[in-house]
Amino acid sequence: MPEQVISRDGTPIAFERSGSGHAIILIGGILSDRGGMAALSEALTDHFTTMAIDRRGRGDSGDGKSYAVKKEIEDIAALIEALGNRPTLFGHSSGAALALHAAATGLPINSLILYEPPFSSEDAPEAEDTYVAEVEGHLHAGRHAEAIKAFLAASGVPDEMAAAMAADPARLRSAPSMANDLDLMGVSTGGRLPADIARRVPVPTLLLTGDQSPVFFQETAHRLGQLIPDARVAVLTGADHSAAPQIVAPAVATFLIEMHQDRVTIARKTEEHLSGEG
């Protein structure tokens, strides 16, 4: 059964907690609720506490009065406050874009893991994303299934599969939240990478991308790795944008274990140095 916290604007935000150990908040992408993170959560729970979140307007979370990046960051802040310690944020796709924005605001987190945030290079020419106007038009008119199909078609999903996904009740309910994901993806500026935001991330960061993913995802991961002050990039063999848990979980665990070891080593050396001065 999901637990919940109350966000700053009074919106209930649901999450599901599993496992024990250092906490990882799992944030899904467009049209995804916490169920989309269930397999990854299960793969991590032997060593970590996972908290898979229903972003507002999805699953068992409330809608609130509006969608905005700021409000979704406040949702994450409420969960961190209830947790009472500094977790890792893990985001997939547009959920990775949200995690990046949240980390840059200085939320009290331990580290950040981003799996293929959907940006283009900040130097890329502004894209003509005509599908965005189509998606937004359908949303404004309440044609949620058509909005979903238009987005999925633009993403290369076959028509038959897109139609089946657009008929799913959970996705239909979450369709209005698509507008916020499009904002997170920076479609108003051609999807260009938010370099200024990346430079403000204050915590150790792991960028993950699959060697079977479209090239622009891989390029984005490497560019973010250059922009975020303390970042490393891992290209996962055999992985694509779907983020298969049996490939992703070991990379996540390795990063967090190595980061902990590095901090213990630094603390020990600092203590030895101070003892020597005394």
Notes on the protein architecture:
α1 crosses α11, α2 (69-83) crosses α3 and α4 (130-140) packs antiparallel against α5. The chain has an 8-stranded mixed β-sheet, sandwiched between helices. Mean pLDDT is 88; it is low at 124-128. It has 278 residues and is α/β, with parallel strands linked by helices. The chain is built from 11 helices and 8 strands. The chain is globular, with a radius of gyration of 19 Å. α1 (38-44) links the parallel β3 and β4. The longest helix has 33 residues, at 245-277. It has helices at residues 38-44, 69-83, 94-104, 130-140, 144-154, 159-166, 169-174, 178-184, 195-199, 215-227, 245-277, and strands at residues 3-6, 12-19, 23-27, 49-53, 88-92, 111-115, 205-210, 231-236. It has 2 domains: 3-124 and 192-277, Rossmann fold (3-Layer(aba) Sandwich), CATH 3.40.50.1820; 126-191, no CATH class.
Task: Describe the secondary structure blueprint for this structure.
Blueprint: E1 3-6, E2 12-19, E3 23-27, H1 38-44, E4 49-53, H2 69-83, E5 88-92, H3 94-104, E6 111-115, H4 130-140, H5 144-154, H6 159-166, H7 169-174, H8 178-184, H9 195-199, E7 205-210, H10 215-227, E8 231-236, H11 245-277
Parallel strand pairs: 3-4, 3-5, 5-6, 6-7, 7-8
Antiparallel strand pairs: 1-2, 2-4
Helix pairs in contact: 1-11, 2-3, 4-5, 5-6
